Structure formats: C-alpha cells, structure tokens
Amino acid sequence: MSIAIRAFKGAELLAHADELRSVYVDAFCAPPWDEDEEKATEFVDRLPANVRRPGFTAVTAVQSGEIVGFATAWTTLAPFPTDRCYPQAAAGLGADQTADWLIGARETDELAVRADARGTGLAGKLLKAVTADAPEGRSWLLTSVQSPRAMSFYRRQGWTQATHPSPDGKGIVVFLGPRHPARSLAPRPL
C-alpha cells in the first residue's frame, strides 16, 4: 500500500489530535524512550498553542486512511526557550551559537512513526518534508544520546551533531539539518 504525505500549516492539524496521540504512544512509550502515556497527553495538550507558533508546519503519513507517522516543526524565536530540554541545548552550544544557529531556524519538535512502519524510509520522508522549506536551509532538532538508533538515523539523513554531552551518555544533543549553513562549524567528537 502506498503512503501519502500531507502537510499542515495551522489549526487544521488539531482535527487529527487523537490519531497523533496514538502514534506518539506507539513511538515513544516503548524502549528506548519508555515514556508513559501522560507524555502523549502532554504533547496533545501543547498542540493548540503549537499550531499558532510562527512558522508552524506539520506533516502526516497516511496509509489505508490511518496516520502512521507525523512530524511537527516551527520557527525558533528569541528569546531562546527555557522550558523542556532547551536549557541543555543552550548550555551545549553557548549563548552566541544558540542565538546564531537556532534562533530563526526551523525547529523539528516531534518525529514519530508507528513501530510497524519503521525501517521503511518513512521517518526520513517525514523529516525532509517538515524541513524542506526551512529558512535558508536552517533546521535543527534535539534528541537524546540514550537512543543510539535515533542518533544513527539523523546522521544517515545528513544531519550534523552540534553538541556533545558528557561521556555518561545521558544528555540531550542538538543536530543541525543537512542544509544548515553552520554545519561545518559544529565541533567534531573526539
């Protein structure tokens, strides 16, 4: 069966909140993320505010009438956020690079694919679709080093790891998109 990618630019995504929650649970309530279903509820509860963010964009993957994956993104505005994992990103980059590299760029917030659709190339298609029109190619995202699979996936998609947390492997990392002009300035691992 073919999968259709559909783009959303605003509140029309909210009509699919229950399906997005279901995909979120399937993607993140299993290892390595091991989130509880409350995190999926928090994601859906944030959606009404997120769809109003400047530059908001989302894409869904639909197969046989059901959403099997999605990605959401928006423009990161100044001042740089201080909630969720943002302080770790800012600490890893420093104030100047955070401002120069991330403010005004397309921030991918969530990328989720149902377990039975993994390994099909769908996540890569969603990531490309949600960042395709990023301003001047400037896109970025956060992920955890606790998921070697996610880290490897982003590298295979041409993303560059821009921060390197402590060796204990419990940190958040910033990845810069394949067309981000600061990619070549990101520190390389030792």
How would you sum up this structure, described in words?
This protein has 190 residues and is α+β, with helices and mostly antiparallel strands. The chain is 32% helix and 23% strand. It contains six helices and seven strands, in the order E-H-H-E-E-H-H-E-H-E-H-E-E. The chain has helices at residues 17-28, 37-50, 86-93, 95-102, 122-131, 148-156; strands spanning 4-8, 57-63, 66-75, 106-113, 139-144, 160-161, 172-176. Strands 1-2-3-4-5-7-6 form a seven-stranded mixed beta sheet, with helices on both faces. Strand 2 and strand 3 form a beta hairpin. Helix 1 (17-28) packs across helix 2 (37-50) and helix 3 (86-93) crosses helix 4. The longest helix has 14 residues, at 37-50. The mean pLDDT is 93.
Question: What characteristics describe this protein?
Answer:
190 residues; alpha+beta; 7-stranded mixed beta sheet; 6 helices; globular
List the helices and strands and how they pair.
Elements: E1 4-8, H1 17-28, H2 37-50, E2 57-63, E3 66-75, H3 86-93, H4 95-102, E4 106-113, H5 122-131, E5 139-144, H6 148-156, E6 160-161, E7 172-176
Parallel strand pairs: 4-5
Antiparallel strand pairs: 1-2, 2-3, 3-4, 5-7, 6-7
Stretches where pLDDT is under 50 for at least 5 consecutive residues are: none
Q: DSSP helix count? A: 6
Order of SSEs = EHHEEHHEHEHEE
Instruction: Give the total of beta strands.
Output: 7
Main sheet: strands, sense, barrel: 7 strands, mixed
% residues in beta strands? 15-25%
Structural class: alpha+beta
